[in-house]
Write a sequence for this structure.
């Protein structure tokens, strides 16, 4: 796409005709959109895009008009112009208050005119994504040789099934550069998904600059080695590894996502998965002087233990669940977290902050005098209620700042924080329980939407993964609204998200391989009406989507792709 287009936002007068094609008979083959639209009516004729094509849009849709102009102008030798105002461009973007769904749109392509209407700019943006998929895959290549685009005539009325359609990415186990995060956001947008859950902190690395606590990135963003091979591994590579995003970079990414109608939800893990923060600021631990233990064998915990060298606390070098967590008895822990969250809130306009809450062992709290004193003073029953106290306290703080929390389903244990949204990952049970308590729920069950799982039964054919097996067909077979909920309770299921944990994803190519085409399947699950789901039909459209992946230079799993 060409950035010089920005300077073309100017009023021009075009009267030339765009070589219309009225009488061409189109067939289903011409319409290969994923996710499948709610209603698609095939029409005859084709709209030709050429150098006379112009886009007209009202001021509030300028962002969308520029986005579309850039897509269309990626065709060789064509510069498509955007005309501000409701004038008579050949492509018109407009808002239509009669469309019921906030994210809904209509797309009308006739031989001589294209109209995209949305209730909101977001709806118009999704209409543009459908239009994009009606064009040849070749337009996705930056320096392509497509000289003419013809778009089949159509009438589409479309809106999503769920309001939450997300992709998660763990940038802590492995770190991915800003350019890749933008590519990931572009993929989310292409699939009409609307949320990027950015997992920014972990035992193995702290990835977000916090100005008040510089050691979080000076120390916490770097580990001195990584286990080799599948956990428990065959050794440690002893290589320094890490990286982090500056606040300026984060602002740039949030802006980029906002322009693509994607909400970025940051995750700051607490009280567990906090070894990197503890390495930077040992006072956060129940036992600041105890050395970090790096287990070679987390399964039995009887394996070789490598004690941290020199300093008592180091950033973790292996995967799993660590005992050293934030102390729940020390007031300084809460002051630290509130300071961190203040800076996070200032960076992310999202209504939600994800506070983690998963996999927090209670052993340290059990032997920590401060934590035990907190249990006594607060009249708590046990360490599970202490975890609930921790989460509820963070929720209260964030609610006061106008934010809502999301937590993994462990936050149900010991009592759910009053306004929390639950992310159900250990199957669907947590989601059902939370919805029955009338809490919002996002379904991310491991069996269907953990994209760190293998994609083929024969693991020898696959790059190393964490385990499990989730094929693209398994994803497509997933039904996000769990059984066992009344019609009223079902309304609390906001949608679904795939989780992409990066223990074994060392490169961006590998991430692409693990998400594609599984995220393409998920996009249809969260958008298209349940009754319209059809595996054979999806599989046929997927073949065309693969051509688009190829044109975009993406690495993807080919188990379901039949090459012509
Ligand atoms: C998780 O997968 N530990 C949320
Ligand atoms: Zn403690």
């Amino acid at each position: 796409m060409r950035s010089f287009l920005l300077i073309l936002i100017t009023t021009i007068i075009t009267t030339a005709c765009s070589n219309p094609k009225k009488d061409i008979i189109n067939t289903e083959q011409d319409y290969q959109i994923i996710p499948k639209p709610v209603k698609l009516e095939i029409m005859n004729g084709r709209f030709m895009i050429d150098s006379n094509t112009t886009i007209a849009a009202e001021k509030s849709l300028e962002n969308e008009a520029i986005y579309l102009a850039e897509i269309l102008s990626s065709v060789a030798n064509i510069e498509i112009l955007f005309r501000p105002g409701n004038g008579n461009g050949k492509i018109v973007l407009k808002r239509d208050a009669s469309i019921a769904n906030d994210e809904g749109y209509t797309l009308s392509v006739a031989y001589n005119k294209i109209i995209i209407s949305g209730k909101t700019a977001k709806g118009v943006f999704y209409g543009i994504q459908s239009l994009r998929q009606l064009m040849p895959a070749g337009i996705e290549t930056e320096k392509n040789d497509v000289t003419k685009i013809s778009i089949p005539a159509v009438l589409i009325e479309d809106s999503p099934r769920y309001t939450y359609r997300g992709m998660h990415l763990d940038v802590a186990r492995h770190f991915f550069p800003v350019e890749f995060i933008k590519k990931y956001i572009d993929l989310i947008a292409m699939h009409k998904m609307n949320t990027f859950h950015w997992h920014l902190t972990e035992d193995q690395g702290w990835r977000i600059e916090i100005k008040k606590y510089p050691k979080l990135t000076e120390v916490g963003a770097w580990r001195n080695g990584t286990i080799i091979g599948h956990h428990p591994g065959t050794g440690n590579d002893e290589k320094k590894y890490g990286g982090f995003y500056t606040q300026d970079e984060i602002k740039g990414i949030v802006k980029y996502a906002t322009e693509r109608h994607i909400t970025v939800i940051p995750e700051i893990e607490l009280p567990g998965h906090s070894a990197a923060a503890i390495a930077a600021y040992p006072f956060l631990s129940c036992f600041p002087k105890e050395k970090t233990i790096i287990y070679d064998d987390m399964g039995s915990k009887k394996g070789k233990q490598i004690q941290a060298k020199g300093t008592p606390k180091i950033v973790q070098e292996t995967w799993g669940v660590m005992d050293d967590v934030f102390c729940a008895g020390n007031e300084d822990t809460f002051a630290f977290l509130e300071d961190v969250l203040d800076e996070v809130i200032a960076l992310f306009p999202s209504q939600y902050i994800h506070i983690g809450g998963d996999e927090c062992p209670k052993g340290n709290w059990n032997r920590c005098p401060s934590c035990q004193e907190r249990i006594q003073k607060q009249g708590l029953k046990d360490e599970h209620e202490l975890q609930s106290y921790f989460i509820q306290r963070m929720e209260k703080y964030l609610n006061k700042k106008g934010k809502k929390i999301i937590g993994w389903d462990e936050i149900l244990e010991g009592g759910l924080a009053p306004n929390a949204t639950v992310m159900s990952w250990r199957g669907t049970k947590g989601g059902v329980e939370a919805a029955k308590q009338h809490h919002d729920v996002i379904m991310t069950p491991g069996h269907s939407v953990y994209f760190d799982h293998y994609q083929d039964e024969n693991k020898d054919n696959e790059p190393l993964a964490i385990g499990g097996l989730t094929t693209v067909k398994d994803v497509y077979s997933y039904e996000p609204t769990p059984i066992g909920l009344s019609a009223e309770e079902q309304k609390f299921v906001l949608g679904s998200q795939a989780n992409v944990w990066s223990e074994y994803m060392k490169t961006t190519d590998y991430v692409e391989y693990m998400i594609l085409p599984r995220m393409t399947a998920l996009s249809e699950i969260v958008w298209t009406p349940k009754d319209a789901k059809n595996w054979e039909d999806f599989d046929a459209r997927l073949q065309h989507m693969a051509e688009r992946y190829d044109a975009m230079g993406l690495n993807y799993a080919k188990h379901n792709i039949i090459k012509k």
About this structure: The domain at 19-158 is CATH 3.30.379.10 (Chitobiase; domain 2). The pocket of acetamide (ligand 1) is lined by residues 358-359, 408, 425 (CB under 6 Å). The two ends are 28 Å apart (CA to CA).
